[in-house]
Design brief:
single chain; 10 helices; 43% helix
Length: 344
């Protein structure tokens, strides 16, 4: 049998943000040199109300893989990366996507590999926050073409993980992930500033009052100053508290109970600084920045539904065109939102 076998993966997860009933976000992806079509939408359920109730966020992915297990693993992992971008855009929690149905779609076969697992039924999503699909499409496109793409993906993943811990009693875990995201974005934010200011590292260090006295190397100085001046926007108090909590938690210098209050005081401003730093490196349009940094979106949406218990490289072309469904029971037909393809 040829190695060019095609598979379809349906995965879903609870989320604190919604895609409108007649919309979806579609991404045409190159995954390790093979084409992959990915679509995200919210499932709407008949629960006896006057209108269908929103349920889980659904991933619908179809592409080439060596076998069924490889498709389930690679497509789901890629979907989780893109879901983290949706989480960043909407500033809302999305649980890890879990594959529910996987089957082979290779044409001309009489027998096909098939996998299905039990996932708990969707709970009604207790949120009214809708994803701005146009802004999210621009963010995905900007991320894919950005020279700092890998660092941005790592930072976005940490921010998304922090949102999953955005609840009373989990401030320490949330701050830990946020600070890891800040460490991931630091070099990218520094290089972005150097390019914008048209300066080299030595010139910027001198502007920031670096003293070449042997006590601190220039790289360590620039990284520290980038976090305080550019990421934290000069908010030295929040920076020092977040750094102290992160260091003491990571290296076991203090019991967790002694760090909770400090984490609670620092987590909200620190999260805002990280999200703004990520968006600034992406060089988005003014319109998208206004949408994503508006007051209602700047307020983080925390988990409200159940929590699931359960590294490939990619490039993307983003479109808001809706894909034709293959399983009507899982995804009913929908009209297209817009026609232009947003190429990366």
């Amino acid at each position: 049998m040829s190695d060019d076998r095609s598979f379809r993966v349906i995965a879903r997860a609870p989320a604190s943000t919604l895609i409108r009933p007649d919309h979806q976000i579609g991404v045409s992806v190159g995954l390790d040199g093979q084409p992959l079509s990915v679509a995200f939408r919210t499932r709407y359920l008949e629960r006896g109300y006057s209108s269908p109730a929103p349920g889980d966020l659904l991933l619908d992915a179809e592409g080439i893989a060596s076998d069924l297990q490889a498709a389930a693993r690679a497509f789901s992992n890629l979907g989780r990366e893109i879901a983290a971008v949706i989480s960043l855009s909407a500033n809302a929690w999305i649980a890890p996507l879990e594959p529910e149905v996987v089957y082979e779609t290779t044409p001309g076969l009489a027998r096909r590999e098939y996998f299905q697992r039990y996932l708990p039924p969707d709970e009604v999503a207790q949120t009214s926050r809708f994803v701005d699909t146009a802004a999210t499409a621009e963010i995905v496109s900007a991320l894919d073409r950005n020279a700092e793409r890998d660092r941005l993906i790592r930072s976005i993943a940490q921010y998304s993980e922090a949102l999953r811990n955005w609840r009373t009693g989990s401030e320490l875990l949330a701050l830990a992930h946020i600070y890891m995201g800040i460490e991931a974005i630091t070099v990218a934010r520094l290089r972005h500033e150097l390019a914008k200011a048209e300066k080299d590292r030595q010139q910027l260090a001198m502007e920031w009052c670096f003293r070449d006295d042997g006590h601190q190397k220039i790289d360590a100085f620039l990284n520290s100053q980038t976090r305080e001046r550019l990421v934290f926007k000069g908010d030295s108090e929040s920076y020092q508290v977040a750094k102290e909590v992160s260091d003491h938690l990571e290296h076991g210098l203090s019991n967790a109970g002694r760090l909770v209050e400090k984490a609670g005081n620092a987590v909200i401003p620190t999260a805002g600084y990280l999200r703004q730093a990520i968006l600034s490196v992406l060089d988005l349009s003014e319109k998208t920045l206004q949408v994503t940094l508006s007051a209602n979106i700047s307020h983080r949406e925390a988990p409200t539904a159940r929590t699931n218990t359960s590294g490939a490289t990619w490039s993307a072309k983003v479109t808001l065109l809706l894909l034709e469904p293959i399983i009507p029971a899982i995804a009913g037909s929908r009209k297209s939102l817009t026609s232009p393809l947003m190429r990366v």
